[in-house]
């Protein structure tokens, strides 16, 4: 067991590729607290933080044969937790937004039912279109539109250039406009509601 404790992350990864569960347990124990602290800080919920970290380690185990790291394992796991947190918050936000929308904008008169259904249908199509955007493009878009982050804040959080953020936003808006076949003003109206 001491052999595992003194092994480097790279050595442990090599052992994990050979289905070595003890090496995986060592890696898990080595990084659990740090990743949990990051998740807890962002989510403020112990159960959700545990779930996010468990998902990261499960993904690491499932991808053990194909995973190729370009940076350290520490960096890889930290970024993986951040992406999981963003996805988790995105799901929570969309669920809350949907419930809020239905509560606030429920039709109060029969005459408005048709309009309400059309807008609801368009919103569903918008959410589906957003979910089909490429992952980084979707993450950048959601950080901008739903968390009201600036391009600079998004660039810093995702460790990418501001120009890359702008390119993702342009691509997202263009894709959504074309997919939904609507004008930019209508798209902006739907995004702002």
TrEMBL record:
Lineage start? Bacteria, Pseudomonadati, Bacteroidota, Sphingobacteriia, Sphingobacteriales
Give every RNA polymerase sigma factor 70 region 4 type domain span: 124-176
The keyword Transcription is assigned to this record:
yes
List the NCBIfam families hit by this protein, alphabetically: Sig70_bacteroi1, sigma70-ECF
Q: Which UniProt keywords apply?
A: Sigma factor, Transcription, Transcription regulation
- What is one GO biological process annotated to this record? DNA-templated transcription initiation
Q: Which residues form the RNA polymerase sigma-70 region domain?
A: 27-92
- According to UniProt, the name of this protein is RNA polymerase sigma-70 factor (ECF subfamily)
Which PANTHER family does the entry mention?
RNA POLYMERASE ECF-TYPE SIGMA FACTO (PTHR43133), RNA POLYMERASE SIGMA-70 FACTOR ECF SUBFAMILY (PTHR43133:SF46)
Please indicate which superkingdom the organism of origin belongs to: Bacteria
InterPro entries per UniProt: RNA_pol_sigma-70-like, RNA_pol_sigma-70_dom, RNA_pol_sigma70_bacteroid, RNA_pol_sigma70_r2, RNA_pol_sigma70_r4_t2, RNA_pol_sigma_r2, RNA_pol_sigma_r3/r4-like, WH-like_DNA-bd_sf
Q: Signal sequence span per UniProt? A: none
Q: Which Gene3D superfamilies match?
A: 1.10.1740.10, Winged helix-like DNA-binding domain superfamily/Winged helix DNA-binding domain
* Family according to the record: Belongs to the sigma-70 factor family. ECF subfamily.
Answer whether the UniProt record assigns the keyword Plastid to this protein: no
Which is an annotated Pfam family here? Sigma70_r4_2
| MF (Gene Ontology) | DNA binding; sigma factor activity
